[in-house]
Amino acid sequence: MTGQFGNKDKAWSARFSEPVSDLVKRYTASVDFDRRLADVDIRGSLAHAAMLAATGILSETDLASIQRGFTTIREEIAAGRFEWSLDLEDVHLNIEKRLTELVGDAGKRLHTARSRNDQVATDIRLWLRDATDEIIALLADLQRALLNLAERHAGTIMPGFTHLQVAQPVTFGHHLLAYVEMLSRDAERFADARRRINRLPLGAAALAGTSFPIDRERVARELGFDGVCQNSLDAVSDRDFAIEFTAAASVLMMHLSRFSEELVNWMSPRVGFIDLSDRYCTGSSIMPQKKNPDVPELIRGKTGRVYGHLMALLTLMKGQPLAYNKDNQEDKEPLFDTVDTLVATLRIFADMTTGIQVRADRMRQAAAEGFSTATDLADYLVRKGLPFRDAHELVALAVREASDAGVDLAGLGLARLQALSPLVGDDVLNTLTLEGSVGARNHIGGTAPEQVRAAIGRHRARLS
Ligand code: ARG
């Protein structure tokens, strides 16, 4: 057998006396999944080749041949005509082999001053940088969708909960803005991780650097990296940037999972705060009355798989001595699946948000239950001069009385409230209304409709 690289079609075959067994070939090959890196692999190779020519390591004629070859390869891949071969192990060797078929010796020279170790690290960083940008953009879309909904419901009153018990009234807009805050921090985390993702490993070669007079800064500029990795051993071996990305992804999914849990809960007929558009729900094959919130449930479920990928990558790294080890080939599938899950989840969440129908009457009814304005009565008494702890005690008595009588605090009536404390004036009933309660919390971070509208304005300015 003769091939481009020698007698066994493999880059290192001259040293070996028998072919790799089929079992080993299948076990070690990554081309089935890393062909997804083809585009970034070619971008990296083109920048490397241009640098080799600029530094005189490669001739201009060879560079032109390499560029021509890659144009053809890109067309073949786009058209689905490219023949991926398991014999050639991974995306890098498949593409290099085809390049050599197309342009001859120039293709064989491309790998000068480079190793697959710095090549794959470069590919994965380029790919992840682009994916990070897409995720940050999708996060902005989702935040905008939430802001639109929050704006429509800046004054819609719902119960705020602690311990899943009605605590104090809040506005639905305020509740939604809590998630906008979480998502804005998620976007910051991705942007921060991007700074460390966006460093160029190329030039590290296998592990120690190269004896050729390369220009790493030039390659970095051409590929849009912010700088070069400063240590060759570190450059080819660490995948902490992928771990960081997956950690940010896990926190994001955790937030989306919490939100999903609320949507499921709000949709339950017992709660009935919202309805989700039919396109986000499924029926039951046996119970004709059912409309199940499958999408938020699945988002909650997919959170677990992203956490799993984070654990996989952490574990992948923990036992590896310097420098490159084949273990690192296992970095790709968790990363790819994390990105796929995030992209799909963010898209569907933004669209789902536009299909949320709010049942303001049900929210209001629930907020009116559970003595949600009890704190307002205590605050009222404090303003009249009572120390807060005493006010708290007094309102607890009022709640007990109202509860026994089966009425809310306002339902006790002015006379009974005044009997509890002479400080109670006839202005007290205003403070016990739901509108009075939310409107009074009128400071940055508070639930008052005015504050909700101001916060929406700030978020919109940040996202524009
Ligand atoms: N497919 C390999 C990976 O994903 C490329 C690097 C292989 N290098 C090596 N020395 N075996 O990591």
UniProtKB/TrEMBL annotation:
Protein localization: Cytoplasm
Pathway: Amino-acid biosynthesis; L-arginine biosynthesis; L-arginine from L-ornithine and carbamoyl phosphate: step 3/3
A GO CC term assigned to this protein in UniProt: cytosol
PANTHER family referenced in this protein's UniProt entry, alphabetically: ARGININOSUCCINATE LYASE
HAMAP family for this protein: Arg_succ_lyase (MF_00006)
NCBIfam families from the UniProt entry: argH
Protein name: Argininosuccinate lyase
Organism: Lautropia dentalis
